[in-house]
TrEMBL record:
CDD domains: siderophore_interacting. One of its GO terms (molecular function) is oxidoreductase activity. Pfam families: FAD_binding_9, SIP. This is NADPH-dependent ferric siderophore reductase. Residues 30-151 form the FAD-binding FR-type domain. It comes from the Bacteria.
Length: 296
């Protein structure tokens, strides 16, 4: 069989899952790309949008609100170690290069522009880079390795997360059918971190203001989500991301109270307090088999 026969198999699989009954993670061909920063923009007080472009973004694929790419940074000594293309996979050098993972906020095939929104955590490698980077700078992007494809047939959708999950939630709300029903809970410091969202009319958006409490502390998000009542007999899909410890009560709630099947929810720790480069491999199983090498 020639490779051409397999080229679009992932697109067929995405269409099948989207039309089916339950969500599934679908791998895509993985690429390493050399891109350039086109512009940067503050999005609310908590995010910086980095728009990447140039010839390297041609053919990028975006299919899922929670898909992610890795930005690869130079090592402390200034050397840059990139993975190598190996067919539709990447071969990662050992030890793993310094990288950070970000949600794909938007890809426009017409312009080749790729947007990545980076949360401005103090002292974070990616946040420091995002604050300082200038148009024309080179950025190396690996992925996405795939994405979670969720059918549009659920009766309701429950989305919840903190500032790091906001880019994915914003994309979720844009890409859901306009007839979708449900809830979106977003924990931010204050109103300055809120951003405009394009939510379907029957998806209730609730911003939760944590005030002076440090990110990833407190029960604000978990308590708000657990107050939701899913109407009897309706199928709900639950997507949650944020600080690993803060969202732990929601894992239990989904399992013990809602009793959702594993294909009807996705709960992912995007970061962990005190850990610079956290990767919730347990939940994001597709990291394991898409990369030859764990990053962490």
């Amino acid at each position: 069989m020639s490779r051409v026969d397999h080229r679009h198999r992932h697109l067929e699989r995405i269409a099948e899952v989207r039309a089916g009954r339950s969500a599934e993670k679908v791998p895509y061909p993985i690429r390493i790309r050399t891109t350039e920063v086109v512009r940067t923009e503050q999005v609310g007080s908590g995010l910086v949008r980095i728009t990447l472009g140039g010839p390297g973004t041609a053919g990028f694929e975006a299919h899922s609100p929670d898909e992610h790419v890795k930005l690869i940074f130079p090592e402390p000594d200034g050397t840059l170690r990139l993975p190598e293309q190996d067919g539709d996979m990447l071969r990662w050098p050992r030890p793993s290069p310094t990288s950070r993972e970000y949600t794909v906020r938007r890809y426009d095939p017409a312009t080749g522009e790729l947007d990545i929104d980076i949360a401005l955590h103090d002292g974070g490698l990616g946040a420091d880079w995002a604050r300082a980077v200038e148009p024309g700078a080179v950025a190396h992007v690996a992925g996405p390795p795939g994405g979670l494809i969720v059918p549009h047939h659920y009766d309701r959708y429950l989305l919840a997360g903190d500032l790091t999950a906001l880019p994915a939630i914003a994309r979720w709300l844009e890409e859901l059918p306009r007839t979708a029903r449900g809830w979106a809970f977003i924990e931010v410091a204050d109103a300055a971190e809120e951003i405009p969202l394009s939510a379907p009319e029957h998806v209730e958006v609730r911003w939760l203001h944590r005030g002076d409490a440090p990110p990833g502390t407190g029960d604000l998000l978990a308590d708000a989500v657990r107050a939701v009542s899913v109407p009897e007999g309706e199928r709900v899909y639950v997507w949650v991301a944020g600080e690993a410890g803060a969202i732990k009560p929601l894992r239990r709630w989904v399992r013990d109270e809602l009793r959702l099947a594993k294909d009807d929810h996705d709960i992912t720790g995007y970061w962990k307090r005190g850990v610079a480069d956290f990767d919730d491999d347990h939940e994001h199983e597709h990291h394991d088999h898409e990369h030859d090498e764990h990053d962490h």
